[in-house]
């Protein structure tokens, strides 16, 4: 009767000092080495991918963001932070907790935005006038989509913002 197929075989090696033989987990050692090497390669590939996407996010010329349904910024790249006149994402997030009343010049734009998002799951070229931190206004165009989990539950809005003030003028 053979050994179970899922059992790891151990090699036997004679050791001159002991004069006998004992089981040395050579095969197990090789398997673990291989698994560790695969894990290290996967970790390195993940770090590289994260670096690439972080670089795109950090250096994009367009504003990139994620917001909650309630109108709070969860994430924003430096271009959006600068566009709205803030020094850092933390400053933006701490000062804007209701996009409808604090960002949009016309607070009804947020209502229209949410209606379109619920109806279509995305908006393209959604133009609005918004307020910067210093009180000046600018015109933006947003391309946004709703993000849901695997069960279909809404998580957040994700999108891009372009400053179109010069086009509007």
Helix fraction, binned, reads 40-55%
Biggest beta sheet summary: 5 strands, antiparallel
Structure classification: alpha+beta
> Which value, in Å, is the CA radius of gyration?
28 Å
Treating each run of at least 4 consecutive H or I residues as one helix, how many helices?
6
Give the total of beta strands.
7
Residues in β-strands, percent: 25-35%
Give the overall shape: elongated
How many angstroms does the end-to-end distance come to?
86 Å
Mean pLDDT: 87
Provide the fold topology.
Layout: E1 11-14, E2 21-24, H1 26-59, E3 63-67, E4 73-76, H2 78-83, H3 89-95, H4 99-102, H5 108-120, E5 122-131, E6 137-148, E7 154-163, H6 165-168
Antiparallel strand pairs: 1-2, 3-4, 3-7, 5-6, 6-7
Summarize this structure as a short list of keywords or feature phrases.
169 residues, elongated, 7 strands, 6 helices, five-stranded antiparallel sheet
Description of the structure:
The protein has 169 residues and is α+β, with helices and mostly antiparallel strands. Helix content is 40%, strand content 29%. It is built from 6 helices and 7 strands. It has helices at residues 26-59, 78-83, 89-95, 99-102, 108-120, 165-168; strands spanning 11-14, 21-24, 63-67, 73-76, 122-131, 137-148, 154-163. The strands form 2 sheets. The chain has a 5-stranded antiparallel beta sheet with strand order 4-3-7-6-5. A two-stranded antiparallel ribbon has the order 1-2. The protein is elongated. Mean pLDDT is 87; it is low at 6-15.
């Amino acid at each position: 009767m053979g050994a179970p197929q899922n059992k790891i075989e151990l090699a036997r090696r004679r050791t001159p000092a002991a004069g006998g033989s004992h089981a040395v987990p050579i095969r197990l050692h090789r398997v673990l080495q291989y698994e560790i090497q695969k894990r290290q390669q996967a970790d390195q590939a993940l770090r590289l991918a994260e670096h690439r996407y972080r670089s795109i996010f950090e250096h994009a010329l367009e504003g990139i963001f994620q917001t909650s349904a309630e109108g709070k910024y969860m994430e924003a790249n430096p271009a959006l932070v600068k566009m709205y006149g803030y020094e850092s994402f933390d400053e933006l997030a701490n000062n804007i907790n209701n996009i409808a009343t604090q960002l949009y010049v016309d607070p009804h734009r947020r209502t229209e935005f949410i209606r379109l998002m619920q109806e279509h799951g995305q908006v393209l070229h959604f133009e609005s006038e918004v307020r910067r931190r210093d009180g000046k206004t600018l015109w933006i165009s947003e391309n946004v989509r709703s993000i849901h989990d695997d069960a279909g539950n809404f998580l957040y809005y994700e999108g891009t913002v372009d400053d179109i003030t010069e086009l509007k003028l």
